[in-house]
Amino acid sequence: MFGWTGKLLHVDLTRGTCERREIPTDILHAYLGGRGLGVRLMRDYFRLGPFEPDLPLIFAVGPLCGTNSPTAARLSCVSRSPLTGTIYDCSAGGRFAWRMKAAGLDAVFITGKSAEPVFLSIDPARDELHPAQSLWGKGVKETVAALSGRGSVTTIGPAGENGVLYANIMMGEGNSIGRGGLGAVMGAKGLKAITAQGDGVTGVADKERFDAARGDVMRLFRASPVIFGELGIAEYGTPALVDLMAQRRMAPTENFRSTFFADSGNYSGPAIRKECGAKKEGCYGCPIQCKKASAAGEPLPEYETVNHFGALNGISNLHAIVKANSLCNELGLDTISAAATLSAFGEARGRFPDAAEVASLLADIAYRHDQGELLSLGSRRMAEVLGKPELSMSVKSLELPAYDPRGAYGMALAYVTSNRGGCHLRAYPISHEILRKPVPTDRFSFSGKARIIKIAEDVNAAVDSLVACKFAFFGATLEEYGELLSAVTGVEYGPESLKAIGERIYLTERFYNCANGFDRSQDTLPRRFFEEAGSAGEGIDVPPIDRARFDEELQKYYRIRGLDENGRFGDCNLLDELP
Fold first, then answer.
1. To the nearest whole number, what is the mean pLDDT of the chain?
2. Spatial separation of the C-alpha atoms in residues 19 and 185, rounded to whole Å
3. d(CA 423, CA 368)
4. What span, in angstroms and rounded, lies between the C-alpha atoms of 193 and 130?
5. Any idea where the Aldehyde ferredoxin oxidoreductase N-terminal domain is (predicted)?
6. Burial letters for 267-297: b for 16+ Cβ neighbours within 10 Å, e otherwise?
7. Cβ-contact 421, 396 below 8 angstroms
């Protein structure tokens, strides 16, 4: 077999066993890897609660991982989110995915609960569980350093150990499996870390075809101003978006009460380079190198993080924002949910946290100490406890990222149709509404957005299953990546077949969620966006979203998806009809 190894490592933490098993070839062909494979492997488990021992935590790579396909050294982690209750996947780069594949695995399927803390070592010669009492309680850096002799490391920090509902799983290089609280799932299982090493090589079916396809992808990357332009993400990382979002009047500010922050220039891409000596870094083998690190090698924050620890909390001090990012990485906290929860807390008490207070609050959250006990629950549960549920800016309990939906109506729709909650990456309409790629659309119109969002969700589900980076598709398309995939695997894939796979994955996720009680009532935005205007200025008016028009487009979306008016499935046998 080319591309895939066809192997899964089944780990039972309760029994302390590790066993390599075969993955049926037809499942690999139908779901690819990454998100799709993980979602398929959840089929018999999706009704289990996030902290039930039998719920699996799945790490899965894609068929392009292990080759020099651009941006494909990534993996997806799939389980059920303790923050949202939804089926959940989250992807991350770094070296771990590459080494897991080199160890001969397409997936690691972890179930059960260890009586004592353990770590898992993956090696072609022997997969084994080891005692980790000495690592429990340690931060991410110390854990990675202690295990680095065993290859690449992925670990949880104190937040995951203590069950913070938005705890991360951190990769040793600073990348994160960041949203939804899968670090808490890992912590509940008593699993501190996983190490991976191997020397296997991913076979390529047609080397000449692969080289030609890779050359096409790289030419499109170089031609993309968003990727390699003067102000592109290769140059400044995602904080290149700070100035653009300010100009568009859609930067969430003070818990989304406004959409413009006058001091955002303090943490823009150029400001970070000037103040922090930012240098290029990136995922293993990636030509884009969008990550940025300080002169001392410390990972620097991305756009979502600088906005949320900046504008969303009314903080303009860059160094305080960088410190907050570093603390989240060390403690194992999702920066978006942490900052958004602090912001909702700030509005509820009538005072947003200042730069000095943020650091102590983050530590309290990770250790669930004092006010951190309440804040560790996320903004929805926290706001409900405080009697002000309307202050949680979340969808399906997932805190919204740094694109105000009043400034991009496709984004508004995509937030509510996302299977994992308020996420910008499921459809990423910012690409056409703001970045004007591949073609521009009117950001203040719902016209045609239902169909655009549906197609984009299917495309992105396929991308997440390859597993490739979203940024690659500011240049390339599914046509080029389908050619790469065909060359690697020897199985023919084109754009339409990949979109069909993506649709299969999306519908499976939606079916799981509906079976767990999700429906139209959760597919909505906080009422603030329908009742309050954003910040007008420079000739731009940001009115509240027209709720009637929003509901109309959502119903169109349901019809296109084949769902009923409540967003549910008429066919209860959907899973029986899928591979």
1. 96
2. 21
3. 26
4. 10
5. 4-200
6. bbbbbbbeebebeebbbbbbbbebbbbbeee
7. yes
Given a cut of 90, whether residue 178 has pLDDT beyond it is no
List C-alpha distances in Å: 254 to 243, 340, 346, 347, 349: 18, 9, 8, 8, 13
Q: Please tell me the distance from the alpha carbon of residue 137 to that of residue 279, in angstroms, as a whole number.
A: 31
- Contact between 2 and 493 under an 8 Å Cβ cutoff? The reply is no
Question: Is residue 103 scored above 90 in pLDDT?
Answer: yes
Where does residue 66 fall: left (phi above 0), alpha (psi -120 to 50 degrees), or beta otherwise?
left
Q: How far is it, in rounded angstroms, from Cα 172 to Cα 186? A: 16
Could you tell me which residues come within 8 angstroms of residue 533 by beta carbon, excluding any fewer than 6 positions away?
406, 542, 543, 544
Is the pTM of the predicted complex or chain greater than 0.85?
Answer: yes
> Which parts of 105-249 fold into alpha helices (H)?
140-147, 158-161, 182-188, 207-223, 225-228, 233-236, 241-247
Instruction: Name the residue type at position 462.
Output: A
Q: Are the C-beta atoms of residues 5 and 104 closer than 8 Å to each other?
A: yes
Q: Give the residue-averaged pLDDT of 13-25.
A: 98
Q: Which residue has the tokens 């000037």?
A: 274
Pair of tokens at residue 558? 């349901």
In 3D, which of 184, 161, 157, 191 has the Cα closest to residue 171?
Answer: 157
Alpha carbons 51 and 184: distance in angstroms, whole number: 8
Banded model confidence at residue 523, pLDDT cuts 50, 70, 90: very high
Distance CA 167, CA 177 (A): 9
CA-nearest of 389, 385, 398 to 523 is 398
Q: Note the maximum CA span of the chain.
A: 64
Q: Which amino acid is at 112?
A: G
**pLDDT tens profile 532-577:** 999 999 999 999 999 999 999 999 999 999 999 999 998 788 999 9
Q: What is the DSSP string of 265-328?
A: GGGSHHHHHHHH--EEE-STT-SS--EEE-TTSPBPP-HHHHHHHTGGGT---HHHHHHHHHHH
Distance (Å, rounded) from C-alpha 364 to C-alpha 247?
35
CA–CA gap between residue 446 and residue 554 (Å, rounded): 10
Nearest to 375 by CA among 190, 534, 164, 563: 164
Q: How far is CA 339 from its chain centroid?
A: 16
Question: What does the DSSP 8-state code read for residue 107?
Answer: E
